[in-house]
Amino acid sequence: MSNDKSILHTFVVYVENKPGVLARVSGLFARRGYNIFSLAVAPTEDERFSRLTIVVDVDSAPLEQMVKQLFKLIHVVKITELDPRESVERELLLVTVSAALDIRGQMIDLVQVFGGRILAVGQDSLIISIEGAPEKVDDFEELLRPYGIVELQRTGRVALARLERTPRARIAKVS
């Protein structure tokens, strides 16, 4: 890739909830040489189906080919690409960070500013969780790095299309 910031595409793939389907979907990307940036999968409200939210870094031309190849896989029911401007994306971060007593107050303040939670307190470390837009989680992670990240786990993105907004009723001014 060039020095330009990569273009990430978010796909939602509905599949039949069967063994091996996830391996076939992820294998398709691997065979084409595309890296999966993020992958989240879970059953839907209908237990017969699972929803995969896949974030990949691909150019537009190969993208169309990938969608065609995905549809050829047995058990794939529906594929949607979500535009980040028209969707709500969230990610969860769990992190163990070094937190000596003399800087613990700073850490607590930082967690509060970002709307996170302290899940566990050790003698010289904290376990923190934060949920939010991927950019918010990225910013929080970068601010924690100087303190010393011991262990980190991110869930990967989950996303839903934004709801359509109905125009608000306008109140006419009576003179």
Q: Which secondary structure elements does this structure contain, and how are they paired or packed?
A:
Blueprint: E1 8-16, H1 21-31, E2 36-43, E3 49-57, H2 60-72, E4 76-82, E5 87-98, H3 104-113, E6 117-121, E7 125-132, H4 134-144, E8 149-154, E9 158-161
Antiparallel strand pairs: 1-3, 1-4, 2-3, 5-7, 5-8, 5-9, 6-7
Your description of this structure?
By secondary structure, the protein is an alpha+beta fold. The chain folds into 2 domains: 8-82, ACT domain (Alpha-Beta Plaits, 2-Layer Sandwich), CATH 3.30.70; 88-160, Alpha-Beta Plaits (2-Layer Sandwich). Helix content is 26%, strand content 39%. The chain contains 4 helices and 9 strands, in the order βαββαββαββαββ. It has helices at 21-31, 60-72, 104-113, 134-144, and strands at 8-16, 36-43, 49-57, 76-82, 87-98, 117-121, 125-132, 149-154, 158-161. The strands form 2 sheets. Strands 5, 6, 7, 8 and 9 form a 5-stranded antiparallel β-sheet that branches. A hairpin with a 5-residue loop joins β2 and β3 (49-57). The longest helix is centred in the middle third of the chain and has 13 residues, at 60-72. The mean pLDDT is 88.
Observed structural traits:
four-stranded antiparallel sheet; about 180 residues; 2 domains; 4 helices; Alpha-Beta Plaits; 9 strands
* Domain tally: 2
Uncertain segments = none
Quick one: CATH superfamily of the largest domain?
ACT domain
- Give the biggest beta sheet: 5 strands, antiparallel
Level of helix content? Answer: 25-40%
Nearest-integer average pLDDT: 88
What is the top-level CATH class of the largest domain?
Alpha Beta
- SSE order, as H and E? EHEEHEEHEEHEE
Q: Could you tell me the CATH topology label of the largest domain.
A: Alpha-Beta Plaits
